[in-house]
Amino acid sequence: MRRSPPCLTFLWLLAFGAAVPAFPALGQESQTLAKAIPAPAASPPDDGNWVMAAKNYASTRYSELDEIDTNTVRDLQVFFTFSTGVVRGHEAAPLVVNDTMYVVTPYPNKLYALDLTKPGAPTKWTFEPKPAASAQGVACCDYVNRGPAFADGRIFINTLDAQTVAVDAETGSEVWRTKLGDINKGETMTMAPLVVKGKVLVGNAGGEFGVRGWITALDAGTGKIVWRAYNTGPDKDVLIGDDYKPFYDKEKGKDLGVGTWPPNAWKIGGGTVWGWISYDPELDLIYHGTGNPGPWNPEQRPGDNKWTGGIFARNPDTGQARWFYQAVPHDLYDYDGINELILLDMPWQGQPRKVLIRPERNGYLYVIDRSSGEVLAADPYFPANSTKGVDLKTGLIEYNEEKHPRVGKVVRDICPTAPGAKDWNPSAFSPKTGIVYIPHNNLCMDWESVEANYIAGTPYVGANVKMYAGPGGHRGTFTAWDPAQRKKVWELKEDLPLWSGTLATAGGLVFYGTMDGWFKAVNAGSGELLWQFKTGSGIIGQPISYRGPDGRQYIAILSGVGGWAGAIVAGDLDPHDASAAKGFVNAVSDLPQRTTKGGMLYVFALPQRR
To answer: Quick one: signal sequence residues (predicted)?
Structure first.
């Protein structure tokens, strides 16, 4: 007898033109799960397209294409380039749908459609959403955008001034637009949307401006709001009801989104959703993180500050919460919980488990049962000293009292720093190796808490920070981690912080970029550098792989330094001001000598055989 995928899974796979995956016989499951594999229903067979930033709902960022492999990659060469005309931080993933590539820029969030059937991929159309210029003044960490999403013949983008826009993928004409946030309160939008069951899922940014975080579902056909779940406040606002069944006692109780804050502080408490969302069609649950509480100064907000710094599982139709896990109760260091959530099926203590993998900003790689929210493992992939570990029985992280921030005192050598061991930039997972590939920082910081006063639309931080290189003196690390064995397989040390995403391929390769502009391909098994190319500007974008109209495999990456890590270049900041960019400038004061502003798409391929 074979398990049949649920009806929803079947319809979803048909909608994307993919074959329904074969599910293992019940008696064969433990044998099939000899190592971690992507959740089958969330990762249909690769059709050569790249229709969402994370590649699939499992967020593997893995391509099954293998024409470019460990033997041929040395011959990789530029196939075409395209200038976006914008010189802020380019964090987006390009999309490819059949014969068209779609690229969205940082503010002013121009959307380009490039014709892949013609030499040089000329522009088919350009869509300009014209977001409000004043949004630039409330963008925390550069004017970035993390990419579009495609579904049902439409491209969906978020604009910096907190609007979501649907654009006809063929013509470039606007279909609808919905305003979701208020820039006068400091709300912006930088995340890549995700389309699930006819709903466009988006969240706000602005945790450093004292906004109230939320995730919203829009009807993909009309743009009308279907539901909105806040991440602070009473249960009715957070969409916590009868379906809510958290694993840990610390997540249980009435209206914790109010009671774990000082009076009314939850109204300006952060918890924004500016990172990644994953979806399991089999369990019919979406997973999203919640950002830091506001302000950074923890003495101004005693309590656990729910529901910030954690992970929600929600019903995509209603937004109702199924479970929540708070990785950093009463966050002390700006350790947002917005990083990627990789959905895997893997053996655990002799039994198959449905898990999600997340390398958190706090320096621990979490393995969590995605059905229940139980933490199965939380192992350090970075030498953290701000905490001492995670108690798996209670789910609680233990803070190091010696590194606890205090008003009027400078606490030195806190590791990791505020952007975390790893910020937003996503990892990749290869089912061929069973390894998660993590691009991350190696940074520590000095921290001084100060009093913050809330004024709508202005920074609400309450800390002076200075960042610098961590143990060993290098500022970035690329780590290969085996989640089943709970150990590091290999790592590469990089001089500068790593701020790009990662791509793994069936050719046995992993691609990532550096802040001084090197785009690299390494052996997925050993980490050996096999190929690199110097782009015109630092790389903080997300690499993708696709099959072109000619049947060949291509690799694409956006180059254009910026973001929080590269604000010193993109924003022309003074390298002598150690406090600039909330202290990040001190860690990368040499970056202006290593790279310059840019905004360029690079597409690579092997030489065409004659």
So the answer is: 1-27
27-to-31, 442, 456, 463, 556 alpha-carbon distances in Å: 8, 44, 59, 56, 42
What is the value of pTM for the model shown?
0.94
Residues taking part in catalysis: 208, 292, 334
**How far is C-alpha 515 from the geometric centre of its chain's CA atoms?**
18
Compute the residue count for the chain.
Answer: 610
CA 406 – CA 399 distance, rounded (Å): 14
Helices and strands (DSSP H and E) totals, the chain: 6, 39
* Integer Cα distance of 513 and 540 in angstroms: 7
- Using DSSP bridges, classify how beta strands 62-63 and 503-505 pair: parallel, antiparallel or unpaired: parallel
Q: Tokens standing for 8?
A: 């929803």
Q: What angle do CA 260, 263, 266 make, to 5 degrees?
A: 60
CA 211 to chain centroid: 20
Four-residue CA torsion sign, 227, 229, 233, 237: positive
Name 289's bridge partners. 311
d(CA 467, CA 506): 37
| β-strand pairing of 443-449 with 410-414 | antiparallel
Mind listing the pLDDT tens digit for each residue in 324-377? 999 999 999 999 999 999 999 999 999 999 999 999 999 999 999 999 999 999
C-beta of residue 426 within 8 angstroms of C-beta of residue 502? yes
Distance, in Å, from the CA atom of 133 to the CA atom of 143, rounded to the nearest integer, reads: 11
**C-alpha span between 455 and 553 (Å, rounded):** 51
- To 10 degrees, the CA torsion angle through 376, 378, 381, 383? -160
pLDDT in tens, 414-461: 999 999 999 999 999 999 999 999 999 999 999 999 999 999 999 999
